């Protein structure tokens, strides 16, 4: 079957030309797919029956990804396994009332003020040592339709109304978006132009894929940028993020400086705190000095590492986290601790691994994070 979900208006137009129908049919089909989230061609009743049948005979279907499994956290977070139609699944997370970290100030409150964490690949090739997704390796890239389709599947489940409800999107799920750059940016354009979510409500996180950051810097329509930093120097970063051997922190800083920021926009630096590895005050001092050199409006989101099976790290104690944050603030760096979301259902940062598990082994800890 050939999915229509994921095609932009130009592509839909080229497709419908083959069926010799008037141009206004493109708009009708596009609205059915992206505004009304119609699931079956048979339900697109403003298109002639004959056209629908011919599309079906040619192998087309709408192809909106569907939620195969749902895991609900005690904190309201939901983690989904979303079926991509080829026997694979990918993980997506719904965090009601924002994530208390994307804006960084906890100001997002209220019904249907939510954040959706979206995946860009099935698995990941980057191999960050603290991340469960890395254990899958890379299985495949997602298409633009599969990336944007995760969002629509979740919006539909929660009966979200675009324009009424405040929805943030964070591209911090499984995979490295900038290693699937073209499909990722095609998905962004669909979400902005077709589905109607403002780009200012979207943030993409990268571990530091240099060519991707430089291309991103030239995009006229783009999400906000978050850099998954996680270390104060190359020595520590190489241990936990082997990608640093290819592009070190200085390269990262130089590339980030190329991204033109919009009014009031800030760069986000994400920092997963691993007990005894990168959480000492000397590290905070290094981070403070490093980020002052960036010379752009920025903030730091501190994420307490989420334990996973057979992972060789420890959670830092709460006082260490608080002192780390205070030291960054001392250096003039706005720093926020992201509160835990969905750790009991493996929905939290670095925990997305297509698992059907719900955890019963949670350590008692009152500060933690959400999704990367
Ligand atoms: S943290 Fe992100 S980039 Fe690193 S391995 Fe996990 S999914 Fe990939």
Plain-language structure description:
The protein is an alpha/beta fold and 372 residues long. The protein is built from 10 helices and 14 strands. The chain has helices at 9-17, 24-35, 49-57, 144-157, 181-195, 210-217, 234-240, 249-256, 281-294, 318-330, and strands at 2-3, 60-61, 66-72, 78-83, 89-96, 113-117, 121-123, 138-141, 166-171, 202-206, 224-228, 267-273, 298-304, 335-337. The strands form 3 sheets. The chain has a 10-stranded mixed sheet, with helices on one face. Helix 4 (144-157) crosses helix 5 and helix 9 packs parallel to helix 10. It is elongated and about 70 Å long. It starts with a strand and ends in a 35-residue tail after the last strand. Bound molecules: iron/sulfur cluster. Residues 124, 126-128, 131, 133-134, 174-176, 207, 350, 372 line the site of iron/sulfur cluster.
Quick structural gist:
The protein is α/β, with parallel strands linked by helices and 372 residues long.
Largest sheet: 10 strands, mixed
Q: Helical element count?
A: 10
What would you report as the Rg, rounded to the nearest angstrom? Answer: 21 Å
Mean pLDDT: 90
Order of SSEs = EHHHEEEEEEEHEHEHEHHEHEHE
Structural class: alpha/beta
Strand percentage lies at 15-25%
pLDDT < 50 runs, ≥5 residues? 100-111, 359-372
Shape: elongated
End-to-end distance, in Å? 32 Å
- Which ions, cofactors or small ligands are bound in this entry? iron/sulfur cluster
State the helicity in percent bands: 25-40%
**How many E-type strands?**
14
Strand order of the largest sheet: 3-4-5-6-9-10-11-12-13-14
